[in-house]
Amino acid sequence: MSQPGTILSHVGLGPYRSESTQTYVDPTRPGSRPGQVESARAEVESVRQLLASAFLQSIYRRYNIASLTQERKMWGLSRKGVSGFSSSSTALQVTQGIHATALTAIVTGASSGIGAETARVLALRGVHVIMGVIDMIDANNLKKSILKEIPTAKVDVMKLDLSSMVSVQNFATEFNSTRLPLNILINNAGICAVPFMLSTDNVELQFAINYLGHFHLTNLLLDNMKKTTGESKVKGRIVNVSSTGHRFTYHGGIHFEKINDPLR
User: Fold this and answer.
1) Where is 149: in which H helix or E strand?
2) Under CATH, what is the fold of the domain 91-242?
3) Mapping DSSP to helix (H, G, I), strand (E, B) and coil, where does residue 197 land?
4) pTM above the 0.70 mark?
5) Average pLDDT by consecutive 10-residue portion of the chain (264 residues)?
6) How far, in Å, CA of 237 to CA of 100, rounded?
7) 21-53 burial: b if 16+ Cβ within 10 Å, else e
8) Domain map (residue ranges) of the chain
């Protein structure tokens, strides 16, 4: 049987779906004071990995899944869609032959993992990429790496904390003030299997980042995308990155009235 830790990325529980946790440390917890942030981040990551591994082990036992290959067959993940691509297709393969020098794209959570590769390949195809991130250091390092590989690339980094609706509003206002067009919005940032925390808006953290933040962002940018479509005659595209983890839900569904309850 595969070790759960080796397939976290496949089901959306791996590090590539997470951004820096520094902003999310509760002020009453260790790590909120100077000098303790790194240890708190390490503690959160350790707990997150344990929870993710336990989650996958329970799922594998429940569905009698012996390997990642069996899991992929079980959900039909290797089957090609009408586009001719499957879940195993790479960004390079999907965009092969596409030249998009006139397009502008926003990619959230672009400092690592899926977001980073998406940003890199879009830049390679000529797209002006805006990286909406919480970890500015990692994002700027990635930008340097992209420019080293693709000297003509157009890449900008902008601060975006999807757990804060104020930050989302500020990001959208700043982007719209640039008067750049918007052809593509890729809502990629996300977290999973983290200890219970509330966002700055007192909403359960994963729900705030993965859903509410992106919903608010999309609405704030929609007029720009519609305007761009009308002027360029090129249809806009909004992509919401998801995970096979959505298949493993509570039998009773989501209890929205209890979503902020740590005892649920």
Assistant:
1) helix 136-149
2) Rossmann fold (3.40.50)
3) coil
4) yes
5) 32 36 39 49 61 60 55 60 82 91 96 95 98 96 97 98 98 97 97 88 94 98 98 95 75 80 66
6) 13
7) beebbeeeeebeeeeebeebbebbeeebbeebb
8) 4-78, 91-242
